[in-house]
Amino acid sequence: MSTNTTTQPLLAPIQMGDLLLSNRMAMAPLTRNRADNPDSAPTDLHVEYYSQRAGAGLIISEGSQVSERGVGYIYTAGIHNAAQIEGWKKVTKAVHNKEGHIFCQLWHVGRISHPDFHNGELPLAPSAINPKAQAYTQNGFTDTVTPKAMSTEEIKTAIDEFRQGAANAIEAGFDGVEIHAANGYLVHQFIAKCANHRTDEYGGSIENRSRFLFELLEAVATEIPLNRVGIRLNPMAHGFSGMSIDEETLPIFEYIVKKLGELTINGASLAYLHIMQPFGDVSEVSHAITNVTQHFRPLFKGILMTNNGFNQASGNAIIAENHADMVAYGKLFIANPDLPKRFEAHAELNRWDSKTFYTQGKEGYTDYPFLK
Description:
- By secondary structure, the chain is of the alpha/beta class.
- It contains ten helices and 16 strands.
- Strands 3-4-5-10-11-14-15-16 form an eight-stranded parallel barrel.
- A hairpin with a 2-residue loop joins strand 1 (about 15) and strand 2 (about 20).
- The protein is globular.
- The protein starts with 13 loop residues before the first strand and ends in a 27-residue tail after the last helix.
- The relative contact order is 0.14.
């Protein structure tokens, strides 16, 4: 296919609900650990970082915890207190001043946390199963513990925290929200049989293990139209945050994606589905599939965003072949704040420095050079 600037599918605009996005390149949600203040609030450094990248068709913020109970990593900016809302207001204003669009990713890590974050109390999860993963605490990466199985009341509280997080995001000026239902965090824990051994209405059958997600979406939709809500799924997560693939993994995600595609609340449909390619090689894993985006495309008629490992050529190709409508870029946006302009000019790309992904300060955050 031709990759002249006028014919690159990645650079074509796209209508997302009532938002017109300037291109089909999303900046993926990226934990960067720069909120190093007592309130876990975004700082002026965040303002610069996000506004530098406002050329993305859509910025999806770093995962922002919806409550103190949702924290699992140090220095992550939340969306549950007044200081955080005020900090994000500065970010969204700066992005909008550059005619960009930005969604807030709503996050609760569930069992991928540690008692150090909760005054010695155990993290919350669907079931008391240690993921045998690591949380990122003041003492560095620390082994997880066996969490507390959530009561029905605690489940309802967590759902309400997502609702309030959506309300706070709108107050902070975000254009919408993305529900983080991927990568082994709380929503994914309810979905996955390896993390959910409940025997009540939130466990057991495919319908029951999906219930938390859909109740959460209904709650969020009381604060914000569904066409301003995206959702991120990682169906083939394996060996990451304690996730594993089993004989029900594909069927439950097929059920969820089909239901998401049919879902309307107050006349609005989901803004987009953000689906992830596998993190590693799952070709030898029983019950796994490798072409995740292509597999789920027929089940979801709305905007489908794909993610993980795409470059300029493969990003253009997957849209041209109609397997996806948008492509989210993570590391490339870290190192290239002006990534759409670089793609348009077929310019050389900066390389990212992985040593500064989770550090503090501007190094490796706001100091990557722009195209001259």
